[in-house]
Design brief:
Helices cover 65% and strands 2% of the residues. The chain is mostly helical.
Length: 407
Protein backbone atom coordinates (compact mmCIF):
# COMPACT_ATOMS: atom_id res chain seq x y z
CA UNK A 1 0.00 0.00 0.00
CA UNK A 2 2.75 2.46 0.96
CA UNK A 3 4.73 1.56 -2.15
CA UNK A 4 1.70 2.24 -4.35
CA UNK A 5 1.46 5.69 -2.83
CA UNK A 6 5.17 6.30 -3.42
CA UNK A 7 5.20 5.07 -7.02
CA UNK A 8 3.47 8.23 -8.40
CA UNK A 9 6.15 10.29 -6.63
CA UNK A 10 8.90 8.24 -8.32
CA UNK A 11 7.12 8.65 -11.67
CA UNK A 12 6.76 12.40 -11.14
CA UNK A 13 10.47 12.88 -10.42
CA UNK A 14 11.34 10.62 -13.36
CA UNK A 15 9.36 12.87 -15.68
CA UNK A 16 11.14 15.98 -14.38
CA UNK A 17 14.84 15.24 -14.28
CA UNK A 18 15.69 18.85 -13.52
CA UNK A 19 13.75 18.48 -10.26
CA UNK A 20 15.57 15.25 -9.43
CA UNK A 21 18.96 16.90 -9.89
CA UNK A 22 17.77 19.96 -7.97
CA UNK A 23 16.71 17.68 -5.09
CA UNK A 24 20.17 16.12 -5.13
CA UNK A 25 21.89 19.50 -4.88
CA UNK A 26 19.43 20.63 -2.20
CA UNK A 27 20.00 17.59 0.05
CA UNK A 28 23.76 17.42 -0.47
CA UNK A 29 24.03 21.21 -0.24
CA UNK A 30 22.09 21.46 3.01
CA UNK A 31 24.18 18.63 4.49
CA UNK A 32 27.39 20.36 3.41
CA UNK A 33 26.43 23.78 4.74
CA UNK A 34 25.15 22.24 7.96
CA UNK A 35 28.59 20.73 8.49
CA UNK A 36 30.53 23.87 7.52
CA UNK A 37 28.37 26.03 9.80
CA UNK A 38 29.70 24.20 12.87
CA UNK A 39 33.30 24.99 11.89
CA UNK A 40 33.39 28.62 10.77
CA UNK A 41 32.18 27.76 7.24
CA UNK A 42 35.55 26.14 6.54
CA UNK A 43 35.43 23.49 3.74
CA UNK A 44 38.44 21.67 5.20
CA UNK A 45 36.25 20.58 8.11
CA UNK A 46 34.71 17.75 6.09
CA UNK A 47 38.16 16.27 5.44
CA UNK A 48 38.36 15.64 9.19
CA UNK A 49 42.01 16.43 9.84
CA UNK A 50 43.04 15.12 13.24
CA UNK A 51 45.59 16.84 15.46
CA UNK A 52 47.72 13.72 15.77
CA UNK A 53 48.19 13.22 12.03
CA UNK A 54 48.28 16.91 11.09
CA UNK A 55 51.23 17.43 13.42
CA UNK A 56 53.12 14.55 11.79
CA UNK A 57 52.40 15.90 8.30
CA UNK A 58 52.39 19.64 8.96
CA UNK A 59 54.07 20.57 5.68
CA UNK A 60 51.26 18.97 3.69
CA UNK A 61 48.39 20.29 5.81
CA UNK A 62 46.57 23.43 4.59
CA UNK A 63 47.47 26.42 6.78
CA UNK A 64 43.87 27.26 7.66
CA UNK A 65 42.67 23.67 8.00
CA UNK A 66 40.20 22.74 10.71
CA UNK A 67 42.09 20.42 13.06
CA UNK A 68 40.04 18.27 15.37
CA UNK A 69 41.50 18.07 18.85
CA UNK A 70 39.54 14.95 19.56
CA UNK A 71 37.83 13.56 22.59
CA UNK A 72 39.44 11.97 25.64
CA UNK A 73 41.83 9.22 24.58
CA UNK A 74 41.92 9.66 20.78
CA UNK A 75 44.46 12.54 20.54
CA UNK A 76 42.45 14.16 17.78
CA UNK A 77 42.85 11.36 15.27
CA UNK A 78 40.21 12.77 12.87
CA UNK A 79 38.58 10.52 10.29
CA UNK A 80 39.43 8.69 7.06
CA UNK A 81 38.98 11.63 4.66
CA UNK A 82 42.36 12.97 5.77
CA UNK A 83 44.02 9.66 4.81
CA UNK A 84 43.04 10.04 1.15
CA UNK A 85 44.14 13.66 1.20
CA UNK A 86 47.55 12.90 2.69
CA UNK A 87 48.12 9.94 0.38
CA UNK A 88 47.36 12.18 -2.60
CA UNK A 89 50.09 14.69 -1.74
CA UNK A 90 53.09 12.54 -2.74
CA UNK A 91 51.34 11.74 -6.03
CA UNK A 92 50.88 15.45 -6.74
CA UNK A 93 54.59 15.91 -6.08
CA UNK A 94 55.51 12.94 -8.30
CA UNK A 95 56.93 10.73 -5.56
CA UNK A 96 55.80 7.86 -3.34
CA UNK A 97 57.05 9.12 0.01
CA UNK A 98 54.00 8.09 1.99
CA UNK A 99 52.67 10.35 4.78
CA UNK A 100 53.66 9.66 8.35
CA UNK A 101 51.45 7.90 10.87
CA UNK A 102 49.34 5.78 8.51
CA UNK A 103 49.51 2.04 7.90
CA UNK A 104 50.78 1.78 4.31
CA UNK A 105 50.02 -1.93 4.05
CA UNK A 106 46.30 -1.24 4.55
CA UNK A 107 45.94 2.24 3.06
CA UNK A 108 48.35 2.28 0.11
CA UNK A 109 46.43 -0.39 -1.88
CA UNK A 110 43.48 2.02 -2.10
CA UNK A 111 45.36 4.50 -4.27
CA UNK A 112 42.57 5.21 -6.77
CA UNK A 113 40.86 8.07 -4.92
CA UNK A 114 44.16 9.74 -3.90
CA UNK A 115 45.22 9.54 -7.55
CA UNK A 116 42.12 11.46 -8.61
CA UNK A 117 42.63 14.02 -5.84
CA UNK A 118 46.26 14.39 -6.89
CA UNK A 119 45.18 15.71 -10.30
CA UNK A 120 43.82 18.78 -8.51
CA UNK A 121 46.63 18.71 -5.95
CA UNK A 122 49.06 19.66 -8.72
CA UNK A 123 47.74 23.19 -8.18
CA UNK A 124 48.24 23.16 -4.42
CA UNK A 125 46.80 21.94 -1.15
CA UNK A 126 43.62 24.01 -1.39
CA UNK A 127 42.97 22.67 -4.89
CA UNK A 128 43.34 19.12 -3.52
CA UNK A 129 40.56 19.84 -1.00
CA UNK A 130 38.40 21.13 -3.85
CA UNK A 131 39.16 17.94 -5.77
CA UNK A 132 37.72 15.81 -2.97
CA UNK A 133 34.40 17.63 -3.27
CA UNK A 134 34.55 17.71 -7.06
CA UNK A 135 35.02 13.97 -7.58
CA UNK A 136 32.31 12.95 -5.11
CA UNK A 137 29.71 15.28 -6.57
CA UNK A 138 30.55 15.09 -10.28
CA UNK A 139 31.03 11.31 -10.42
CA UNK A 140 27.74 10.43 -8.71
CA UNK A 141 25.87 12.82 -11.00
CA UNK A 142 27.59 11.44 -14.09
CA UNK A 143 27.11 7.82 -13.05
CA UNK A 144 23.44 8.50 -12.31
CA UNK A 145 22.81 9.30 -15.98
CA UNK A 146 24.87 6.30 -17.06
CA UNK A 147 22.79 4.12 -14.73
CA UNK A 148 19.55 5.46 -16.18
CA UNK A 149 20.74 4.40 -19.63
CA UNK A 150 21.16 0.86 -18.31
CA UNK A 151 17.65 0.68 -16.88
CA UNK A 152 14.42 -0.04 -18.77
CA UNK A 153 11.43 2.27 -18.63
CA UNK A 154 9.81 0.41 -15.71
CA UNK A 155 12.92 0.61 -13.54
CA UNK A 156 14.09 4.12 -14.47
CA UNK A 157 11.78 5.89 -11.96
CA UNK A 158 13.61 4.15 -9.10
CA UNK A 159 16.99 5.51 -10.23
CA UNK A 160 16.45 8.52 -7.96
CA UNK A 161 17.24 6.15 -5.07
CA UNK A 162 20.80 5.99 -6.38
CA UNK A 163 21.18 9.76 -6.55
CA UNK A 164 19.62 10.33 -3.12
CA UNK A 165 21.14 7.28 -1.44
CA UNK A 166 21.78 7.99 2.27
CA UNK A 167 24.86 5.77 2.04
CA UNK A 168 26.40 7.72 -0.84
CA UNK A 169 25.55 10.92 1.02
CA UNK A 170 27.13 9.53 4.19
CA UNK A 171 30.33 8.72 2.31
CA UNK A 172 30.44 12.21 0.81
CA UNK A 173 29.71 13.77 4.21
CA UNK A 174 33.13 12.60 5.42
CA UNK A 175 34.78 12.81 1.94
CA UNK A 176 35.86 9.17 1.78
CA UNK A 177 36.01 6.81 -1.19
CA UNK A 178 32.83 4.68 -1.22
CA UNK A 179 30.73 6.98 -3.41
CA UNK A 180 33.65 7.53 -5.76
CA UNK A 181 34.26 3.78 -6.10
CA UNK A 182 30.59 2.98 -6.79
CA UNK A 183 30.26 5.81 -9.32
CA UNK A 184 33.31 4.68 -11.28
CA UNK A 185 32.08 1.09 -11.19
CA UNK A 186 28.64 1.97 -12.61
CA UNK A 187 30.23 3.93 -15.46
CA UNK A 188 32.56 0.98 -16.12
CA UNK A 189 29.61 -1.44 -16.19
CA UNK A 190 27.85 0.76 -18.74
CA UNK A 191 30.81 0.36 -21.08
CA UNK A 192 30.84 -3.39 -20.40
CA UNK A 193 27.20 -3.74 -21.42
CA UNK A 194 27.86 -1.70 -24.54
CA UNK A 195 30.94 -3.82 -25.41
CA UNK A 196 33.36 -0.90 -25.15
CA UNK A 197 35.93 -2.90 -23.29
CA UNK A 198 38.99 -0.63 -23.00
CA UNK A 199 37.18 2.01 -20.87
CA UNK A 200 35.64 -0.86 -18.89
CA UNK A 201 39.04 -2.33 -18.05
CA UNK A 202 40.60 1.00 -17.13
CA UNK A 203 37.66 2.22 -15.03
CA UNK A 204 37.13 -1.15 -13.34
CA UNK A 205 40.81 -1.28 -12.41
CA UNK A 206 40.52 2.22 -10.98
CA UNK A 207 37.40 1.20 -9.04
CA UNK A 208 39.24 -1.77 -7.48
CA UNK A 209 42.18 0.48 -6.58
CA UNK A 210 39.70 2.91 -5.03
CA UNK A 211 38.11 0.26 -2.82
CA UNK A 212 38.12 -3.53 -3.00
CA UNK A 213 34.30 -4.05 -2.77
CA UNK A 214 34.22 -3.12 -6.46
CA UNK A 215 34.97 -6.82 -6.92
CA UNK A 216 31.51 -7.62 -5.53
CA UNK A 217 30.06 -6.63 -8.89
CA UNK A 218 33.00 -7.55 -11.13
CA UNK A 219 33.37 -11.09 -9.75
CA UNK A 220 29.74 -12.08 -10.54
CA UNK A 221 30.17 -10.60 -14.02
CA UNK A 222 33.14 -12.93 -14.49
CA UNK A 223 31.09 -15.86 -13.20
CA UNK A 224 28.31 -15.04 -15.66
CA UNK A 225 30.85 -15.00 -18.51
CA UNK A 226 32.20 -18.40 -17.41
CA UNK A 227 28.69 -19.84 -17.11
CA UNK A 228 27.86 -18.68 -20.64
CA UNK A 229 31.27 -19.82 -21.95
CA UNK A 230 31.86 -16.34 -23.34
CA UNK A 231 35.65 -16.58 -23.59
CA UNK A 232 36.12 -13.03 -24.79
CA UNK A 233 34.33 -11.60 -21.78
CA UNK A 234 36.12 -14.00 -19.44
CA UNK A 235 39.41 -12.51 -20.63
CA UNK A 236 38.03 -8.96 -20.51
CA UNK A 237 36.77 -9.26 -16.92
CA UNK A 238 39.94 -11.04 -15.86
CA UNK A 239 41.99 -8.20 -17.37
CA UNK A 240 40.67 -5.73 -14.80
CA UNK A 241 42.94 -7.40 -12.25
CA UNK A 242 46.18 -6.70 -14.13
CA UNK A 243 46.71 -3.12 -12.93
CA UNK A 244 45.66 -3.82 -9.29
CA UNK A 245 47.91 -6.90 -9.17
CA UNK A 246 50.87 -4.90 -10.52
CA UNK A 247 50.26 -2.25 -7.89
CA UNK A 248 50.10 -4.85 -5.15
CA UNK A 249 53.34 -6.43 -6.39
CA UNK A 250 54.99 -3.03 -6.10
CA UNK A 251 53.68 -2.64 -2.56
CA UNK A 252 55.01 -6.09 -1.65
CA UNK A 253 58.43 -4.94 -2.89
CA UNK A 254 58.20 -1.55 -1.16
CA UNK A 255 56.85 -2.86 2.16
CA UNK A 256 58.31 -6.28 3.01
CA UNK A 257 55.73 -6.90 5.74
CA UNK A 258 52.83 -6.15 3.41
CA UNK A 259 50.50 -8.99 2.45
CA UNK A 260 47.43 -8.94 0.19
CA UNK A 261 45.37 -10.91 2.71
CA UNK A 262 45.57 -8.14 5.28
CA UNK A 263 41.89 -7.25 4.78
CA UNK A 264 40.86 -10.73 5.92
CA UNK A 265 41.85 -9.62 9.43
CA UNK A 266 38.62 -7.61 9.47
CA UNK A 267 36.36 -10.57 8.55
CA UNK A 268 34.64 -11.56 11.79
CA UNK A 269 31.31 -13.29 11.01
CA UNK A 270 28.47 -11.68 13.00
CA UNK A 271 30.91 -10.47 15.69
CA UNK A 272 30.02 -6.85 14.93
CA UNK A 273 26.27 -7.41 14.97
CA UNK A 274 26.38 -9.50 18.16
CA UNK A 275 28.63 -7.02 19.96
CA UNK A 276 26.41 -4.16 18.86
CA UNK A 277 23.28 -5.85 20.23
CA UNK A 278 25.14 -6.61 23.47
CA UNK A 279 26.07 -2.94 23.78
CA UNK A 280 22.37 -2.02 23.52
CA UNK A 281 21.43 -4.43 26.32
CA UNK A 282 24.24 -3.10 28.51
CA UNK A 283 23.15 0.48 27.95
CA UNK A 284 19.50 -0.33 28.66
CA UNK A 285 20.52 -2.10 31.87
CA UNK A 286 22.68 0.79 33.04
CA UNK A 287 19.84 3.30 32.92
CA UNK A 288 21.91 5.81 30.94
CA UNK A 289 20.53 9.06 29.52
CA UNK A 290 18.37 9.12 26.40
CA UNK A 291 20.96 10.92 24.26
CA UNK A 292 23.46 8.07 24.61
CA UNK A 293 20.68 5.61 23.86
CA UNK A 294 19.56 7.56 20.78
CA UNK A 295 23.14 7.70 19.54
CA UNK A 296 23.49 3.94 19.96
CA UNK A 297 20.13 3.19 18.34
CA UNK A 298 21.07 5.29 15.27
CA UNK A 299 22.73 2.13 13.89
CA UNK A 300 19.74 -0.13 14.54
CA UNK A 301 17.93 0.69 11.24
CA UNK A 302 21.06 -0.62 9.51
CA UNK A 303 20.64 -3.93 11.35
CA UNK A 304 17.09 -4.22 10.01
CA UNK A 305 18.24 -3.24 6.51
CA UNK A 306 20.94 -5.91 6.68
CA UNK A 307 18.41 -8.67 7.38
CA UNK A 308 16.10 -7.33 4.67
CA UNK A 309 19.08 -7.44 2.32
CA UNK A 310 19.85 -11.06 3.21
CA UNK A 311 16.29 -12.00 2.30
CA UNK A 312 15.97 -9.94 -0.90
CA UNK A 313 18.24 -11.95 -3.31
CA UNK A 314 16.13 -15.06 -2.71
CA UNK A 315 12.87 -13.45 -3.84
CA UNK A 316 11.38 -13.33 -7.32
CA UNK A 317 12.53 -15.69 -10.05
CA UNK A 318 15.99 -16.85 -8.93
CA UNK A 319 17.16 -17.65 -12.47
CA UNK A 320 16.78 -14.00 -13.50
CA UNK A 321 19.65 -11.60 -12.83
CA UNK A 322 21.49 -14.19 -10.75
CA UNK A 323 24.82 -12.35 -11.12
CA UNK A 324 23.27 -9.33 -9.40
CA UNK A 325 21.81 -11.58 -6.70
CA UNK A 326 25.32 -12.87 -6.00
CA UNK A 327 26.63 -9.30 -5.98
CA UNK A 328 23.94 -8.21 -3.54
CA UNK A 329 24.59 -11.18 -1.29
CA UNK A 330 28.35 -10.43 -1.27
CA UNK A 331 27.59 -6.89 -0.10
CA UNK A 332 25.46 -8.27 2.74
CA UNK A 333 28.23 -10.77 3.53
CA UNK A 334 30.62 -7.83 3.94
CA UNK A 335 28.21 -6.13 6.33
CA UNK A 336 27.58 -9.32 8.29
CA UNK A 337 31.27 -10.10 8.73
CA UNK A 338 32.27 -6.56 9.72
CA UNK A 339 33.73 -6.41 13.22
CA UNK A 340 32.46 -4.17 15.98
CA UNK A 341 35.61 -2.19 16.76
CA UNK A 342 36.35 -1.03 13.20
CA UNK A 343 32.82 -0.89 11.81
CA UNK A 344 29.68 -1.43 13.89
CA UNK A 345 30.88 0.85 16.69
CA UNK A 346 30.67 3.87 14.34
CA UNK A 347 27.57 4.72 12.27
CA UNK A 348 29.53 6.14 9.33
CA UNK A 349 31.72 3.05 9.04
CA UNK A 350 28.89 0.55 8.73
CA UNK A 351 26.53 2.80 6.77
CA UNK A 352 29.01 3.25 3.92
CA UNK A 353 29.17 -0.50 3.43
CA UNK A 354 25.64 -0.41 1.95
CA UNK A 355 26.54 2.12 -0.78
CA UNK A 356 26.94 -0.43 -3.60
CA UNK A 357 23.68 -2.18 -2.65
CA UNK A 358 21.48 0.54 -4.18
CA UNK A 359 22.73 0.37 -7.81
CA UNK A 360 22.96 -3.44 -7.62
CA UNK A 361 19.35 -3.55 -6.40
CA UNK A 362 18.32 -1.40 -9.37
CA UNK A 363 20.20 -3.63 -11.82
CA UNK A 364 18.55 -6.70 -10.28
CA UNK A 365 15.13 -5.05 -10.46
CA UNK A 366 15.88 -4.33 -14.11
CA UNK A 367 16.13 -8.09 -14.68
CA UNK A 368 13.37 -9.31 -12.36
CA UNK A 369 10.36 -7.14 -11.52
CA UNK A 370 9.12 -9.72 -8.99
CA UNK A 371 11.84 -9.31 -6.37
CA UNK A 372 10.63 -8.21 -2.93
CA UNK A 373 12.07 -4.70 -3.17
CA UNK A 374 9.57 -2.50 -1.35
CA UNK A 375 10.82 -3.03 2.22
CA UNK A 376 14.43 -2.34 1.27
CA UNK A 377 13.45 0.79 -0.65
CA UNK A 378 11.20 2.14 2.10
CA UNK A 379 13.78 1.53 4.78
CA UNK A 380 16.46 3.21 2.67
CA UNK A 381 14.25 6.31 2.40
CA UNK A 382 13.64 6.16 6.16
CA UNK A 383 17.40 6.02 6.78
CA UNK A 384 17.86 9.06 4.52
CA UNK A 385 15.36 10.97 6.64
CA UNK A 386 17.12 9.88 9.85
CA UNK A 387 20.49 10.89 8.41
CA UNK A 388 19.24 14.40 7.60
CA UNK A 389 17.78 14.73 11.11
CA UNK A 390 21.10 13.64 12.55
CA UNK A 391 23.09 16.04 10.38
CA UNK A 392 20.91 19.08 10.94
CA UNK A 393 19.63 18.62 14.49
CA UNK A 394 21.63 16.05 16.47
CA UNK A 395 25.30 16.09 15.43
CA UNK A 396 27.28 18.15 17.89
CA UNK A 397 30.23 20.40 17.26
CA UNK A 398 33.53 18.70 18.10
CA UNK A 399 36.50 20.36 19.71
CA UNK A 400 38.65 21.95 16.99
CA UNK A 401 41.10 24.66 16.07
CA UNK A 402 41.86 26.39 12.78
CA UNK A 403 45.53 26.05 11.82
CA UNK A 404 48.48 25.19 14.04
CA UNK A 405 48.47 28.32 16.22
CA UNK A 406 48.40 27.29 19.86
CA UNK A 407 49.69 23.78 19.32
Amino acid sequence: MVQKRLLPIFLFFNSKQWLTVLSFFLIWGVSTLGYWKKYEWNPTSMVNFGYEFAMQNQAETPEKAVLFKGEAGDLGAGYDGQIFYYFSRPLSEFNLNWPKGFDESYRAPRIGYPLLIALFGLFGKTAAIFGMYFWNISLILLSYFYLRKLLNEETKPYAILYLLSPFALGSYYVLVSDTVMVSILIIAYYYYVNKNYLPFIILSSLAILTKEPALFLLFPLGLAAVFRKDWKRIIIVGSVLIIPVCWHLYLAYRFPNWRPGRLTDFILPFEGLISYMESIWRLLGSGTNWKDLARLFSRFPLVILFFLGLFLPFTGKISKGWEFRISFFLIMFMVGTAGYYHFWSVYENVSRMFTLSIPVLLLLLNEDKNIRKQEYILFTLFILLLFLVKVLLISKQLSYQVGFIGF
